[in-house]
Amino acid sequence: MLKFLTCFIILISYSNSELILEKVLLLSRHNVRTPLSKSLPQTSPRQWPSWREKSGYLTSKGRLLEGYMGEFFSEWLQQKGLIQNQCPSDDTLYVYANTAQRTVASAEAFVTKGYSDCNITVHHSDRADPIFSPFIHNSTFKFRQEALNQMKDYLNSLHLNTSYTTIENILDYKNSPLCKQEGLCDMLTDENRPMVITGKKPFISGPLKLSKSVVDSFIMEYYEGFPSNEVAWGQIKSEDEWSTILNLSRAYLNAIFTIKLISLDLSKPLLGYLSSFLLNDNSPKVVLLMGHDANIYTVLSAMNFKPHVLHGQYEAVPAGGKIVFQKWFNMLNGSYHMKIEYVYQTADKMRNGVKLSLDEPPEFTTLELKACIVDKDGYCPWNEFKTLLEELIA
Ligand SMILES: *[C@@H]1O[C@H](CO)[C@@H](O)[C@H](O)[C@H]1NC(C)=O
Ligand SMILES: *[C@@H]1O[C@H](CO)[C@@H](O)[C@H](O)[C@H]1NC(C)=O
Ligand SMILES: *[C@@H]1O[C@H](CO)[C@@H](O)[C@H](O)[C@H]1NC(C)=O
Ligand SMILES: *[C@@H]1O[C@H](CO)[C@@H](O)[C@H](O)[C@H]1NC(C)=O
Ligand SMILES: *[C@@H]1O[C@H](CO)[C@@H](O)[C@H](O)[C@H]1NC(C)=O
Fold first, then answer.
1. Whose CA is nearest to atom 11 of ligand 1?
2. Known catalytic residues?
3. CA 316 remoteness from chain centre
4. Whose CA is nearest to atom 9 of ligand 4?
5. Among 98, 95, 99, 103, which Cα is nearest to 57's?
6. Which ligand is the nearest neighbour of the Cα of 331?
7. Measured distance CA(332)–CA(177) in Å, rounded
8. CA distance 308 to 329
9. Is the beta carbon of 121 within 6 A of some atom in ligand 1?
10. How far is the CA of 239 from the centre of ligand 4 (A)?
11. Which of 187, 258, 299, 383 makes the best surface tag, with the fewest CB within 10 Å?
12. Which 8-state DSSP code applies to residue 144?
């Protein structure tokens, strides 16, 4: 009897080994890129650092870091028994990137390092790809009006005075070309003007957008490994100052991507793609989707996740970070489960170029959907997940 009990207890405590990973979808943001904004020189009298790559391109540091992700995930997928030690075909691993250079190059970095002896195709469209484009689809006046009002309400709810003052000081904004030539000298009072145009990305012109671009550049400088006195010209003196200015970029991205009405509309094609993969038994075992922060922001908002914290990261949607959707099968009782984790590298490890492996893994943060409550190990019932997806794409 005692023997039987011991056995039983061992079985329970090792019950995870009774779970088999059947399907994985990685929804990824491209890795480190050069700044996108053309207006940076207007925001400060200081000299912006120069980058080797063209604006908006994946940097060689970004390629290195994404290669590490590829190496890690190929080991992880092999450990989980999903892709054995052989070259996966499209039926096993399907890699799909948005058209932009930084997304295609990120996906290429991932597969060239992860599957170095293989010839894996990175699928992508030659023109703007609706799956990855965070464009407004609804063409009704009512939608645009509602979206605008909700963006304005959100903007009015923000308390960003301290953040604006801090970024103005870092930039020496009073001496910037914008102030001297165009009279835009006060971020606290200059107007933020939201725009909702069918077929375009939601947009807000004004100091919030400007400061979002500035903070984005600082973060990329940090990841890229610029010397400390060149990251934001050495003007960010403490972690507190980082969090103060980060509120500006979070506020901007939240305003354009996370209002439910907007995120549901923007993410519809991508959610359709996710469903066609996750809810289809004959789809490839693993899919890598290489997109943008917009894709992750809108999917997280549309699917209605509970709040989460990514420790060690400045960004809410870090470069190279991946939402990893996992469909698990429980052999003991024949039931299916969904587990969703945010897998990302900390800002410091990105800056230091730390190589990843099963012994030195990236960060794993469990995510929880409001419509699919997880158990202590992070699994939620598959049927609840399936119902949610079906409702979202209906
Ligand atoms: C790799 O695959 C591509 C597309 O399937 C093909 O055109 C190319 O010839 C292949 N290269 C090698 C070295 O097998
Ligand atoms: C467009 O938006 C309006 C207003 O929110 C909504 O009533 C309508 O159902 C939406 N149309 C589609 C196709 O989503
Ligand atoms: C923020 O600054 C504006 C402009 O100077 C001012 O009108 C407003 O009262 C300030 N808000 C707070 C909460 O201090
Ligand atoms: C940043 O925003 C968070 C919540 O949005 C708030 O709690 C915090 O006080 C803000 N920090 C600063 C320095 O403004
Ligand atoms: C199967 O086992 C899991 C894990 O113990 C449990 O959460 C789930 O409810 C069970 N499913 C069925 C159909 O019994």
1. 119
2. 30, 293
3. 8
4. 244
5. 103
6. 5
7. 67
8. 26
9. yes
10. 13
11. 383
12. H
| Candidate of 160, 208, 247, 309 to mutate for ligand 4, largest count of ligand atoms within 8 Å of Cβ | 247
Q: Which residue has the tokens 């480190």?
A: 32
Mean pLDDT by 10 residues, the chain (394 residues): 46 63 98 95 96 97 98 97 90 97 98 96 96 97 98 98 98 97 96 97 97 98 97 96 97 98 98 96 95 98 97 97 97 95 98 98 98 96 98 93
Strand partners for 94:
287
Q: How would you class 25 by CB atoms within 10 Å of its CB: exposed for 0-12, middle for 13-18, buried for 19 or more? A: buried
CA proximity to 258, closest of 121, 115, 147: 147
Q: 38: left (phi > 0), else alpha (psi -120 to 50), else beta?
A: alpha
Q: Which two tokens stand for residue 83?
A: 């892709």
Type and span of the H or E element at 129: none
Residue 380 three-state SS: strand
- Any idea which residue has 């410091």 for tokens? 348
Considering only CA atoms, give the Rg of the chain.
22
Which ligand lies nearest the alpha carbon of 262? 2
Q: Which two tokens stand for residue 380?
A: 């939620």
**328, 22 contact by CB (below 8 A):** yes
pLDDT for residue 5? 47
> How many angstroms separate the CA atoms of 211 and 41, rounded?
12
**For residues 254 and 115, is the Cβ–Cβ distance under 8 A?**
no
Q: Is 162 in the pocket of ligand 4 (CB under 6 A)?
A: yes
| Residue 340 structure tokens | 């969703």
| b/e burial code for range 173-204 (CB count within 10 A of at least 16 → b) | beebebbeeeebeebeebebebebeeeeebeb
Grouping H, G, I as helix, E, B as strand and the rest as coil, residue 40 is helix
Ligand 5 site, residue 333, Cβ cutoff 6 A: yes
Ligand 4 centroid–CA 197 distance in Å is: 30
The phi and psi torsions of 34 (rounded to 5 degrees) equal -75, 160
Q: Which residues pair with 341 in a beta bridge?
A: 324, 366
Instruction: Give the helix/strand (H/E) hosting 133.
Output: none
pTM surpassing 0.85?
yes
